[in-house]
Amino acid sequence: MPEPITTVGLGAIAAYLGKDGLQKILGPTADYLGQGLRDFTQRRIENIGQIFHNAETKLGDKVNSKGEVPPKVLKAVLDEGSFSPDRLAVEYFGGILASSRSEQGRDDRGARIAKILDSLSTYQLRSHYLIYSSVRALFSGRDIPFNMEGRPKMQIFVPFSGYFSAMDFNQTETDQIGQILNHVFFGLHGDSLIEGSWQYGPKDSITKLFAGATDGGIVLQPSALGAELFLWAFGYAEKPLEYILDPSFFAAIEGVPSQFPGACATQT
After folding, report:
1. Which of 48, 59, 61, 181 lies in the 20 to 30 Å Cα band around 170?
2. Are 51 and 80 in contact (CB under 8 A)?
3. How far apart are CA 224 and CA 50, in angstroms?
4. What confidence tens digit (pLDDT) does each residue in 230-256 have?
């Protein structure tokens, strides 16, 4: 007689982790997993296993200290993350899970962050990562506060050539580039993941915002919520927003460019 999906599911997820990994990451909340996995397919379970493995890696030695993840966060990660096999989505959901682990198990902000993440398309998520990793690369080590006065000083220009290259568009996607650009940037702005004056277009249009533009492209600035999501994605929810500019903050993802080629600050 086949094993129930709950038993099979727990075993499959545990295979991605070290000894007692599920219990170490989740604490008492691990008791919720059996019921949560009841109706999962094997593919969804594999996705969750990768997310848990990512979270365990981000926690490092902290996984052996006392702590737990709020059940509300676990539910959000199971519901939203199990349908997200994309490498970036695994990285972000793993970070949310790791960031949500605390000694008291009371901090359930990650449930809200997971909902924001789930609302993003693959194009928006990759753009978000590349925007904030580019901001990091361009302004790392600078003493700029991540507040309403500081963020406009972190405005960047991304040439279309660099954007298309980093997004790794195929021909079908390139043929729909106008629709994709609308979707990505109106969507990110509407969700407050970028803010302020932003624009994309040909060189003649962009030079009105950034005189140094040598090609068409995108001008935009980071937002507080966009930076917050970026920190959660790498397991640093406890850090201030300025931490994304800390030289010690490692945000590389294997197989994904670390920034937009040709991106530059619009202010010196």
Report:
1. 48
2. no
3. 28
4. 999 999 999 999 999 999 998 889 889
